[in-house]
Structures are given as C-alpha cells and as structure tokens.
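Q: What does the predicted 3D structure of LysR family transcriptional regulator look like?
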Amino acid sequence: MAGLEIRELECFLVLAEELHFGRTGERLFVTQSRVSQLIGALERRVGARLVSRTSRRVRLTPLGVRLRDALAPAYDALCAAVDDARDAARTVAGDLRVGFQGTADDRLLAAVTAFQDRHAGSRVEITEIAFSDPFGPVQRGEVDAAVVLLPVEEEELVLGPVFSRQPQRLAVSTRHPLARRGEVAAEELAGVPLICAAEPAGEYWRRAHAPTATPGGQPIPRGPAVSTLQEGVWMIAAGRGGMLLCAPTAAHHRRRDVVDVPVTGLPDTSLGLVWHRDHENARIRAFAEVVAATVP
C-alpha cells in the first residue's frame, strides 16, 4: 500500500493490547490526541472503522480484530529483522576477511593478533590480493577490508588508517647498468622501461606505481604489464624492465639475479586499509582502530 506509515500500525497494535487511548499514549510517549490522529489516519487508509470507542470502553471492530491478528506476526517479524541487522552491524565478534596486496609483514600480522586478542570470538582470515586488482576483492565483497598500495580514488571505498610509508626502490636485473649504483635519481628512470600492473587496475593507480614521465617531464617507457608481483620479478630477472617497489616488498621478493636500488626524487609509497562504504560495520571499524594503533 502506497504511503503506509509504520507509526500508524504500531499505534494500532498497542491500542489493540491496551484498549485505552491514555495508556497507549504513555507507551508510545505521545499525547492521547496524537493516538486518535494516528488511528484515524489508519482507518481512512483502510476505508473502515477499526476501533469502536465510547465514553466507557474501547474495543476493536470485527475488521480491527482481523487486522490485528494478521498484522501482529508481520510486525514482530519486522522488528526482529531490524534487531538482527542492528546486532550484526554492532557485533565485533566473528570472522573478518582481510585482503593483503603485496606482503603482510610482521607489523600487520601483529595488528591481526592484537585484534583477535582484544576481541574475543573474532578471527581474521587473510587473503592475498592480486597486484593488478587492488580494489576488486573489496568491491565484489570477496573480502571485508583490504590493505592496499595507495592512492585510492574509488568513491565507494572508505580509506582508513594510512601507514608503512616507505621510500621507493628500483628493482632491476643484476645485468642492468644501474644495478651497481648506490642510488638512482628519478630523472634516470627515463632509460628504464617500468613494469606496470595489468588490467583491471585503473590508469591513475598504474601511473602512480609505474609513472610514464619523470618529475622533470622526461618520458619513461612502459614495460610489460603483469598481474602479480611475482610475475613482475620474473620479468625483471629476464631483463624486460625495472619495477618500483617499497623496501619491504623488494626484500620479500629478493633473488640472486635481481637487485633493488634506492631512488631519490620520488614520493614515498604508503599502504592503507580500505573497505566498501556500503559494508561498513563495527568489526571493520574495530580492526581499523587496532591497525592505526599498532602499525606505524
């Protein structure tokens, strides 16, 4: 029924129990006249009298009895559904699926442990996220939150704590001319094809981690597109290009035929915890608080 008012139905059900306009008003924290207005509005909506009222008593009409008997179970189910949704939104205990892009280092794992210790009954399930799809698992509901390389510009995502700011390093093959350098200037990237993330990573995100120009405006050739960091390391070892990585990720993927050299003149990389705006709940917020307090 178009324009159905839940307050009218609630008032009718309370009056059906009390059979007294004054006591009904007291239970609903409204005046007796407001009770009369709500019941009158419902009767006009139905098109017939639901309540018979005299100076001595209040009773339901036969149609009022019929409506009460049909409406009460539906109203109880509606209230139970709202209570269930509220409890789910406020409950911290339970499983939390967290995706990690790159390396879940000891600091992040310490945050996971701290969260589980602080909130009895909670459990964090860790899932690896593809380098080329940093936000997809959160958008598709495959994980509840994700630790990803910044930036993030998707409007539907909430950016929580930002942490692990790290200087960038250029990973290249040991055969590359820059491999023996103590450091590399950002302008020197003009001679290095940079391996980048494949689709579906957005272009703005790809450019952040594989820029197409130096800070001074010199073009940087684009190298192969890869789906995972491991694929990128294989391409580096094969001499197909270089890759900009943060220090912990470079150390995690280190191998004998690949070296990483500090790069000057580029902004630090950062990680952030993100989640979908429509799926936010107390469990995600509690985990974000622990991460913010635990991970520098």
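A (community wiki): The structure tokens above were generated from the sequence. The CA atoms of residues 92 and 199 lie 35 Å apart. The first helix runs from residue 6 to 18.
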